[in-house]
Amino acid sequence: MSPARSRGQAGAGPVLRRPVAPMLAAPVDEVPEGPDLVHEPKWDGWRAIAFRDADGVYLQSRAGRNLTTYFPDITRAVRAAIAPGAVLDGELIVLQGGRTNFAQLQRRVTAGRDLLRLARECPAHYVLFDLLANPGGQVILNRELSQRRYRLEQLLAGAPAQLTLTPQTADSRQVADWLTHWTVATGIEGVVSKQSTSRYEPGRRGWRKYRTRITTEAIIGGVTGSIRDPDTLLLGRFDRRGTLRYTGRTHPLNPTQRAELAAMLSPVRALPRHGATVHPWPQPLPPSWSGQLDRPEPLPYVQVDPTTVVEIDADVAFEHQRWRHRVRYIRTRPDMSIYDVPLLLGEEEGYFGGLG
Question: What CATH code is carried by the domain that includes residue 50?
Fold first, then answer.
């Protein structure tokens, strides 16, 4: 997608025509430092560009899809507070108990007739961080970020709480506080760093994003590929009842990691007399377990004896007792029993309490 522009009404300047590819952020291993850098929280939601047209509001996803019908509460707020012609960029989130809830966001797509009730009970918020066009349609992509931010602040003055300006800072101490406290309290995933003097470049990874990550342990319950040549690991943890629950999947392993793990994995043991095997997870894994929104499919895999503990590196996007993004395998932990791995806690107890 490219930022297509067309002429407005007679005498008007060019206007943005949807779809517009949003400007993106490249991942980094640490928060960057330098002159003219500003930082914003990385919200755990859906990226959305809002077009305030003369006759309503159109919400476009990062991939260019139409999200408008799923967020009547947001389109109503934008239509009431923002003058026609403006184009906004931000993140759609749902808060519960002051913390982002990605699962409630996903429910908007499958709610069907319950959509309006869901919007009333779990209203969405649109956290805004950029302005692509002023009211009236004037395109400001070439303006510096600091200037676009100032205009966005003015535009949101007096807007309802559902339209929120994201915090921004150049203070590294404030960033450290976000990463230390906000990650747990509000569910942000990290920070996005931007040059205050930069223009908005649709489709380009001109920003940088740092995800908060943790190191922890999990139990191998299955693999894709084969036991002798595993491609990815399927991981689990015990709940309080002693059931091994599926919690996520690793990124593909490198050849050294494959060889290391092949020597430690064993097939599921057969029951005495019956010859059948028992494993706590279905085969294949159900599509809903993947946590993916776009065309999820059942995942065939090889069940293994859940006796191997591994150390992993994961981000903080953890919901329904699963890591939503793939985790990174670090090493095996032969020194640990499977009963030394932190237990899965109930949703009400929180994720970080189970990291040990």
Answer: 3.30.470.30
Q: What pTM did the predictor assign? A: 0.73
> Which structural domain range is residue 100 located in?
34-205
User: For the sheet containing 37-42, what is the strand order?
Assistant: 24-27, 205-211, 190-195, 37-42
CA dist 240 and 257 (Å) reads: 31
> What are the start-end ranges of the E strands in the chain?
5-7, 14-16, 24-27, 37-42, 46-53, 56-61, 87-96, 99-100, 124-133, 163-165, 190-195, 205-211, 213-225, 230-238, 244-249, 302-303, 309-315, 318-319, 322-323, 328-332
Q: Is residue 22 in a domain?
A: no
CB 340 within 8 A of CB 309: yes
Q: Tens digit of pLDDT for each residue in 69-86?
A: 999 999 999 999 999 999
Say if CB 223 and CB 69 are below 8 A apart. no
pLDDT tens-digit profile of 258-309?
A: 999 999 999 987 655 544 557 899 999 988 776 555 556 889 999 999 999 9
113: phi then psi, degrees, rounded to nearest 5: -70, -15
Number of domains in the chain: 2
